């Protein structure tokens, strides 16, 4: 088999990538890595305008192009507007990273109020389905294309006594990846998932345990928590032509957990 030629950055500059939740953490790391690889980056953010502007500035400092769109990923209207603005700014979309998600304070399921459970599933699961649906409708214009879904090792481990609702919301995304990959393969759209483990991001603080990644990461086989950039490497590989025969599968970035 002949060696696949490495894409030149100039060859990728016409490619447009959408990231949901791209202003901080893993989403931001993906935006910066993708910019290095020549993607035009469009990302959504919910409310932290300062973080969004900082990410845009960081992409532009690398010589890339970026657009931040304030949007609630669980809103159909906002999702449509995100895609509309991306197409208006940069043209056809060939990459999509579904990343937006939240956790809530640790507790067993027996103590969880209904509004918490509804919020978790609306933000993590409904939003992902809305985004994936819109990608399925539009991305065939720029085939071959790639969708990468950020799941979680929690989907496999269950997060008992902590975030069982979060784990279940991510488990639904694993099923979506498998089914959607089969639906979209005839349109040259690949769909894959990445399951991060204990990664040093702000999401742990929002769940009431800012030290959780460092504390539990020490017990993983690799003996540490991961970094957002390590997850971004896996995501960007799945976005690229280097993974051209991979669809409906997952990369676990979890330190062996």
Give the topology string: H per helix, E per strand: HEHEHEHEHEHHEHHHE
> Helix count, per DSSP?
10
Basic shape: globular
Number of DSSP E strands: 7
Q: What does the largest sheet look like?
A: 7 strands, parallel
Distance between the termini: 35 Å
The low-confidence runs, each spanning 5 or more residues with pLDDT under 50, are 1-13
- Strand order, main sheet: write it out: 3-2-1-4-5-6-7
Average pLDDT level = 91
- The whole-angstrom Rg is 17 Å
Strand content: 5-15%
Helical coverage, percent range: 40-55%
- Structural class of the secondary elements? alpha/beta
Describe this structure as you would to a colleague.
It is built from ten helices and seven strands. With 257 residues, it is α/β, with parallel strands linked by helices. A seven-stranded parallel β-sheet has the order 3-2-1-4-5-6-7, sandwiched between helices. Strand 4, helix 5 and strand 5 (145-150) form a beta-alpha-beta unit. Helix 4 (76-90) runs parallel beside helix 5 and helix 5 packs parallel to helix 7 (164-184). The protein is globular, with a radius of gyration of 17 Å.
């Amino acid at each position: 088999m002949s060696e696949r030629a490495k894409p030149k950055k100039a060859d990728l500059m016409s490619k447009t990538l959408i990231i949901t939740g791209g202003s901080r953490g893993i989403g931001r790391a993906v935006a910066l890595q993708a910019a290095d690889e020549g993607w035009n980056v469009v990302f959504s953010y919910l409310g932290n305008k300062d973080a969004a502007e900082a990410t845009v500035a960081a992409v532009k400092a690398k010589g890339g192009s970026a657009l931040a769109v304030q949007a609630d990923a669980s809103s159909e209207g906002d999702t449509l507007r995100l895609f509309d603005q991306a197409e208006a700014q940069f043209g056809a979309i060939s990459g999509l990273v579904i990343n937006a998600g939240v956790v809530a304070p640790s507790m067993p399921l027996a103590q969880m109020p209904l509004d918490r459970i509804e919020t978790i599933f609306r933000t993590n699961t409904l939003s992902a389905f809305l985004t994936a649906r819109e990608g399925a409708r539009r991305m065939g214009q720029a085939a071959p294309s790639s969708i990468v879904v950020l799941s979680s090792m929690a989907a496999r481990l269950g997060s008992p006594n902590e975030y069982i609702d979060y784990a279940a919301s991510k488990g639904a995304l694993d099923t979506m990846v498998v089914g959607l990959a089969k639906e979209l393969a005839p349109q040259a759209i690949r769909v894959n998932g990445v399951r991060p483990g204990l990664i040093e991001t702000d999401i742990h603080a929002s769940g009431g345990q800012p030290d959780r990644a460092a504390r539990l990461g020490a017990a993983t086989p690799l003996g540490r928590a991961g970094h957002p950039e390590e997850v971004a490497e896996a995501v960007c590989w799945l976005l690229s032509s280097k993974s051209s025969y991979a669809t409906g599968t997952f990369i676990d970035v979890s330190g062996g957990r």
